[in-house]
Amino acid sequence: MPMPRLSGLMLALALFATGAQPLAAQSDPATPLEASPSENAASGSTADHTRFTELEGPFKNAREVNEACLSCHNTGPEQLHGTIHFTWTAPKEAVGEEADQLGMLHVANGFLLSTPSNIEACTSCHIAGTRSDDSALLDASSDPVAPVDCLSCHEPTGQWTVANFHENGAACTMCHDDRLKGDTPEVEDLALAARSVGPSTRAACGSCHFDADGGPGVKHGDLNADLIEPDATLDVHMAAAPDGAGFTCSTCHTTQEHRVSGSRYTGGPGESPERPALAGAAASCQSCHSATPHEALASGPRLDRHIDAVACEACHIPAIARGETKTRVLWDWSSVGELDRRRQPFVDTEKDGTVTYSSEKGHFAHASAYEPTLIWSDGRLNVHRPGDVLPEVTGEVDEELADEVREGVAEAIADAFADAPWISLYDGVAGAGSSRIAPVKVMHSVVPIDAESRALASVLFSGRGRDALWNDFRWEDAVEAGMDAAGVDFSGDVAFARVRQMIPVNHMVAPADQALDCNACHVRAGRLADLPGGFVPGRDGFDLLDKAGLLLLAATLAAVLLHLILRLGFGLFYKGNRNG
């Protein structure tokens, strides 16, 4: 297969499922977009979009659909333009003076590395709903003011977003590790899509978040398409009644004027537990379940004493990626560029279709039923940006990863990355009032850096020129172009470094009877074995005191045995005397 000249790229927000189907024609009664008025209208709402004449069309393009929407919802754009979903920048009130340097537009990561070097192609899937090579599209104050795409969030099946993204010409490799077979989704009836709109759904939100950074479940092990219609064992909140609560994303991610609550950059497990759910980086379970959620249990008082030190998710999300979709735990960019016997790019897969190597992306490792790592977290996230210098690591190994690491052996991965620096790390101090023991997914990556300065590299992935990585696999050219776009100096030489990052875990809440029991943590080799700080009964002890206790126990047992022997002996002696 000849190497394609890839001409578009999307980094992070809208990376979509490979199996999406095209939007069907309006005349097809079986289309998933066809909805009865009662199904289409929001619960308690007075609006049913299937009845609006303004949405009958015909529409030539998505811009005409949005204009029809905005004829009623005329304050939508100014609300949306100020949100993190539009600007990809964390709001100032949340992160203070560093606001202009946080958010997907600014930070580096171990997945698709960085956004600035690929910003022109990123806009192909931006929620403005139009392809633009102007980075000002992300700036709400730009002139002309950027439009919005109502269907991105309000078309309930998520199919519009997938189809629109494919039509905008983004690079296939950014979303898909493997080459797709067959036709890509197309929009056949814009009027049908317009009339189907309603409140956001799990499928609509998931069209971006379930496949973030390269494919299904890649980034977020607790977010994937399995949550569109989960059973209660996978997520007791999102499962349908009567077994589950039937939550949608917006049940917890409450929204005011298009500002969706919940961000990894704000809040924390110990901050204002009675706040509305997910006002910060971690869910406030207490806002619904109170500060004493176990009071109905016989052991309730003992369990509720954990609330001040342990986030609810630590016990009630025993594992992530528990459904059919795996999550990525290793991404090795250093192995990009291997070719097959015909000198063409290729893909290796496991028997279940999971990609383990791609010429454009390197080696991967994935995991199912993945146990999160428990850390002390106060919700404050330390991040790195392209150009940030990584520290020198004692005993750093530059050679290729061992086969067992690339094969996903958990212990081997942990050992190989034991000293790797963190490019995304939560603060937290044991015993501090603002800190709780909380679960995170740890991602392990081998990423390009400047060989001389050890600065994290920004990379140009695709484009028409030879400097795009996926055209000729020339790392030096791709990094030079990427660093120039990010405004960072580059020495001209590329090296690779092992890094780690933390991804928060808040979803896939298991039923109460599947929560962790005491022995999961209160043993020496339990889930808290590597957690620093604090005294954990069962895990910790004082050697001298333990030895003294064992000695006392042994002495007591010896005394009891001696007493038993003496009683038996004297009993037999006196019994013999009486008989004589």
From TrEMBL:
Keywords per UniProt: Membrane, Signal, Transmembrane, Transmembrane helix
Q: Which domain of life is it from?
A: Bacteria
Q: Which InterPro entries match?
A: Cyt_c-552/4 (IPR023155), Multihaem_cyt_sf (IPR036280), Multiheme_Cytochr_ET (IPR051829), Octahem_Cyt_c (IPR024673)
Query: Which Pfam families does this one have?
Result: Cytochrome_C554 (PF13435), Cytochrome_cB (PF11783)
Q: Where is the composition biased (Polar residues)?
A: 37-47
Q: Does the keyword Transmembrane helix apply?
A: yes
From the record, give the transmembrane residue ranges: 550-574
* Signal in keyword set: yes
- Annotated signal peptide: 1-24
> Region labeled Disordered — which residues?
26-48
Task: Please identify the protein, giving its name as recorded.
Answer: Multiheme c-type cytochrome
